[in-house]
Amino acid sequence: MKYGLVMEGGAMRGMFTAGVTDVLMENDIVFDGAVGVSAGACFGCNYKSRQKGRAIRYNLRFCRDKRYCSLYSLITTGDMFGAKFCYHTMPDELDIFDYDEFNRNPMVFYVVCTDVETGKPVYKKLNKADYEGLEWIRASASMPLASRIVEIDGRKFLDGGISDSIPLSFMERHGFERNIVILTQPRDYKKKPSKSIKLVKSVYKKYTKLVKTYSERAKMYNDQLEYIRQSESEGRAFVIAPPKKLEVGHVEHNPDKLLEVYRAGRKAALDNLDRILEFLGE
Fold it and tell me: What are the Cα distances from residue 45, in Å, to 33, 64, 103, 108, 235?
């Protein structure tokens, strides 16, 4: 049986995911494969590089650095989260990403992006962590309106959460029979249509299929939640979700709030640890 890990996005709600995954790593829980969307890709890649504590460490260190995430960065570079600083300077120089361990670890790791021209999800298997690999992660986390379109191999991408927010069905189709699913919204959350749809239609008017996918995102997301509930009831999925809404902004400069969300993730994992181990047959 193959075991998988599914990590939703949610910008700085991803600190909840980081808390969960650190506990899983501390308890030597190994998966055959993992998939991350947006923040789930950014922070989840540390599972494959076996760097517990790294995500919360650099977020606390740089959350007030205008190069990391700021209106200044958006105005001067076109990206709220600075592309060069976040995906190259920081992992290469300031909080070193373990490329060698990522490449050695046999766990399969996918990131989800949205093809801007088709509006469809693209599931990229990262066989190697290098410059291009980190660009795929950047593409997965490039939120519309707050990021530039990312071009890789002649194709254009934005945030994977637009087209597949919680890719449990993708993992099941690829043979992962039991999956831990980390959500960053409470179980009873229902997504509402985006208030920014008019602006999205204006900014991305030449990408009509992207706009269509974006406009249908709430329905897609809520359908996925129902699918997850069904998978959980049938014993194929184990869900870890915050017990209440996480009080943290998409752009969060308060380290105390980041730490609070991270600790909520740790608590959720620790409270469920015995059940997680039983689900994974350990």
Answer: 11, 23, 11, 11, 26
